[in-house]
Structures are given as C-alpha cells and as structure tokens.
What we know:
Elements: E1 2-6, H1 10-21, E2 26-31, H2 34-43, E3 48-52, H3 62-73, E4 79-83, H4 88-96, E5 102-106, H5 113-124, E6 128-130, H6 132-140, H7 151-161, H8 166-173, H9 177-190, H10 198-209
Parallel strand pairs: 1-2, 1-3, 3-4, 4-5, 5-6
Helix pairs in contact: 2-3, 7-9, 7-10, 8-9
Amino acid sequence: MRVAILEDNPILAEGLGLLLSNSGFEVAAVAADADEFAKAMAEQEVEIAIVDVRLPPTFTDEGLRAAIEARRLRPGLPVLVFSQYVEEIYAAELLAAGSEGVGYLLKDRVSRVDEFLEAVRRVAAGGTVLDPEVVSQLMVKKSNPLDRLTPREQEVLALMAQGLGNTAIAEKLVVSEGAVHKHVGNVFLKLDLPPSDSGHRRVLAVLAYLGL
C-alpha cells in the first residue's frame, strides 16, 4: 500500500515513514508543505495520504486544505489527518467533503502504534475513523435528532463514528453481536435513514451524529 505523508516536523515525518515502512507500507512521498504535497500527489500513485492539519506558513489549516484539495482532484482518495488538539470545525469540514475513506486523529494517538496502524488500514479500505476525543467534543454540541436514541444506542453510534464494526463494538461493550445488530438497526430507524446498503447507512448515521 503506497502512502504519502504531509508533515513539516522532520523528526515526526521520519518516524512515521519508518513505522509505516516497517509495517508493510510503501512510503511513496514525504512532503513538508502543501505545495510539495500537491506536486507529489500529481506525480505519484498513492493509495492513502497521512496529513498534519497545521503547516507553514500560518500553522492553521494548510494541511486540511491540502487534504480536501487532493480528494477533490482524486475523488475517493483515503485521507487520515491528525492534529495536536481537537479542532471540531476542521473535523466537520473534512467529513463534509466526503466521509468514506476519512480519518481524524489526535497526534498522541500516533504513539499508540497498533491503534494508529489499524486506523491507517481502516481508512485505506474506505472506512471512517474519528478519534474518541474528537467524537466526544463534537457530540457536546449535537443534540438533535440524537435525542431519539437511548443511551445504549448513542453509545453504539459513538463507536460507529470511531469506525468500529459490529463485532468490535460487541467486544467493547461486552454484549452479543446480535444485540449490537439490533441497536444499529434501531439507530437507522430512529434517524430516519433511507433504505440502502448497510455500509452507506452507517456513513449517513455518523454524519447525522456529527450534525453534518
């Protein structure tokens, strides 16, 4: 799997490259700014991009803008962005540009190697991964239509927003997979999601959860 990294901190960029290379990924490009990243994306075959939100020169949202532009030019490109702090508006904006193959993590999650690599693989496969802290802070500001859900259904939906499947949710909540399947069905029903394949409905449920 070919990966492009956009990170201005050379130590972190090198560390990410080594971690990914040692875990079976091929690092196709490492860029330190948005222009260098755009050039790499135009020249390289990349299957997922890993992007820092804050980059020179303003250290605000250059990385996010670069990620959104890359997805505009290459629809469906999986992108995993990370940030030092929870920046709700950036997470929401990234998801609004297309929720499949998208991840948003806090930087300290990168140090949890297994979790980070699992997030990379999940995003590359078209999944959606949100840092639990991002989810909880976004959730504080979203109440409707989630008021219809029971506390357990909201808990299941929160784990769906983190990218977990039914089996993983069952393990996390220490319940049967059948119980999770029932809760997920209730979430779809109460959020008035139109009939479609289950994967698409999960994406719609997550968007509703985030108020997008």
